Amino acid sequence: MSTQSLSAGKPGNLKGFWQQGQTLFLDYEGAVLSITVLDKNMVRFRLAPGGTFAKRRSWSVTSPDEDFPASPYTFTPTPNGIEITTETLLLKLSNAGARISILNNQGLLINEDSSEGAVFWESEGKTIWRKTMPEDEHYYGFGERSGLLDKRGRRYTCWTTDPWQYTSDHGPGADSLYQAIPFFMALRQETGCYGIYLNNTHRTAFDMGNPRSNQYSIEIEGGEMDYYFIYGPEPAQVLERYTFLTGRMPMPPRWALGYHQSRWSYDNEQIVRGIASQFRERGIPAEVIHLDIDYMDEFRVFTWNKTNFPDPAKLISDLNAQGFKVVTIIDPGVKHQPEGGYHVYSEGSAQGYFITNPDGTEYTGCVWPGTSVFADFTRTDVRKWWNDQHNELLAEGVKGIWNDMNEPAISQYPFGTPNNPVASPSLDAPMGDPEERITFAEGKNVYGLLMDRATHEAMLRFNPNERPFMLTRSGAAGIQRYSTVWSGDNLTLWEHLEMSIAEICNWSLSGVGFSGVDIGGFGGHGTPELFARWIQLGAFYPFSRGHSIEKVSQKEPWTWGSEVEEISRRALTLRYRLMPYLYSLFYTAAQTGAPIWQPLLYQFSKDTTTYQISDQVMVGHAIMLAPICRPGQTTRAVYMPEGVWYDFWSDERLTKPGYRLVEAELDTIPMFMRGGTIVPFGTEMQYSDEKPLDLITLEVYPDANGSATGVLYEDDGHSFGYQHGEFCLTRFQCAVENGKTKISAQRQGQYAPAPRAIEIWVHGEGEARSYQLPRDSGNWQVEV
Ligand code: GLC
């Protein structure tokens, strides 16, 4: 029997169990619960109300159960049910109703199903699993979310949505946004952190205490209740396992870490050339220009408007010579042009590659080109065909693809029509490969993810020796494997500036490390002061791009007057000086899943004050930012967690934990360096490969014992050589021995960076002391 024909119910009493490898199956009067021990801290639960498990879907999870090395576990029937132990966890399953309690090996209860009943189903796959919600537990992640950091007390739907179509806003009240990543983390001081990944791409929801504050629920509208429980106890450990499961961001090309400039729309090549020249003439670092929809011929994807962009290859090569790369936007909506003359439509239609209505006719809806059709990216052959379409763009020198509107966002009437209702293929629309037929109800949430996969594969195919760069608006669990993400259409509001911190941090805690929001805000004009504060912070976003809607005032850094121009120059110059540190963070992210931006709790998980700090952020392990997010403010309270900190600007050494008031005039973002770290800085550059790095400055910030460590990762910045040992990883160490401070560097890897001078600044109670090393020829040790 399948769940389809089931009426409402819940698991009955435990009638039997059987074991198959790492999995234990428990029969609760016809409903079967499977429990798979994947490793000592990760257990997968699946429920088949009718006894038959659903087919496995491969879209998000890259590590199927078989890929995990067998991890020892035992199970024991007890009078109350069954107990399963791994090296670190004890799971207790009740005799009635499949109620689960999870304890760690010290006997601490980490998570427990609701005492009112664990799980029940209402109809056709609509299943709800309820868990208790301790008062002091806080929740993070849930993919792309607006609002503050801690997600306790609200309901979060996972259903890819363009909020602009509903309210022209994605403010704190918005629920579903463009991406659907059904993963969250729970954190308590006493028991640490665990994560739950819900492996289901239908519309799902997490109800975190609404209406009842003592329980939360995991809800699915179709498919199978299938979730992974991941214990930390550190947030970093949860993330490491979650990103093992759904994949990690690969190393991006170094240029992608530079500043990107965009606007809807740089309409013709003169404008684009002008923008590039302005950056260079004004000495404001930047290296990527994004072309929004107006580069196309009447918004037909994979075409150029040849009047406004007569020779794209020449334009791109000229921009390259100035140190700029070009990224072009691509939308999934293909202009419906049955009369012929547009090969993307005619080929796709002839092959039956577009999503159909349930009756098999081509589905049409309106996007930029007017009436459009939509490729079925859940099909392998369609992805391959879409992949083919990129050949020309990439051959012309386009270096990155920006996939937009891929929720997919569709209207009933052409854009611009008043009161234009949202449109969508029917939830019953058939999709998928012949051996994996699904409906749109299951495919919608992964539509963007699979479009991105097609693009990613195209980039690897046409430029096999270059690391791809992509940007996407929609996505699902695992999107980090293919693409950088941004938060779509934010508004030019102070509130949205502040919200970007928690938004990026919650993305980070959902496995997505390379993210950003439109610097300056997409919708609206803004003020010079807002832009100044935004670019100060945006210069540290993992993905740093200024972008704006059309028909509002220009928002490039120089358009706000000389003071803001200078502030922008200073902010972006600092980003480029920090490139060695940032690039090293990306390396760690690619290795372990550790995000670039981290909420304070990620580093200070025992400090409960950090659990709800939404307006400060760690950039990696060493830098803490406390941006000003209100007009007219030049003072703010900053929370300093335990330890030694150094004010980056004044070099003041701070040792008193707790809140302190900090001054920050318009040209300054409050920034603190963490004691115990060594941060590698490079030299000023207009773009990342402008010139060889001939000087590395090591800023040494000792902890209370005078010790510090740091890492510098280097490679050629664009190829895959690093995967075969062509990298150079230098570990720096500073320690005090017999009253003397010793600093050393140890190298690993086969890549040899050009020799360069090393300058060391040791910060401390008084003035920083500086030392020069003549040439860096590998390993060294100095006494300072
Ligand atoms: C969408 C994107 C936005 C882009 C616009 C035009 O609204 O989110 O970034 O500028 O479409 O392509």
Strand content is 25-35%
Q: Radius of gyration, rounded?
A: 27 Å
Query: How far apart lie the N and C ends?
Result: 74 Å
CATH class bucket of the largest domain: Alpha Beta
Low-confidence regions: none
- Described by the principal axes of the CA atoms, the overall outline is globular
Task: Please tally the β strands and state the result.
Answer: 51
| CATH architectural designation of the largest domain | Alpha-Beta Barrel
What keyword list fits this structure?
9-stranded parallel β-sheet; 784 residues; binds alpha-D-glucopyranose; TIM Barrel; Immunoglobulin-like; GH; 51 strands; 8-stranded antiparallel β-sheet; alpha+beta
Q: Would you give an account of this structure?
A:
- Strand 22, helix 4 and strand 23 form a beta-alpha-beta unit.
- 18% of the residues lie in helices and 30% in strands.
- It has three domains: 3-233, Immunoglobulin-like, CATH 2.60.40.1760; 255-486, TIM Barrel, CATH 3.20.20; 677-783, Sandwich (Immunoglobulin-like), CATH 2.60.40.
- The chain is globular.
- The mean pLDDT is 96.
- It is an alpha+beta fold.
- The chain has 14 helices and 51 strands.
- The chain has a nine-stranded parallel sheet with strand order 33-32-30-27-23-22-21-35-34. Strands 2-3-4-5-20-17-16-13 form an eight-stranded antiparallel sheet.
- The termini are far apart.
- It binds alpha-D-glucopyranose.
- Residues 264, 292-293, 329, 404, 473, 488-489, 547 line the site of alpha-D-glucopyranose.
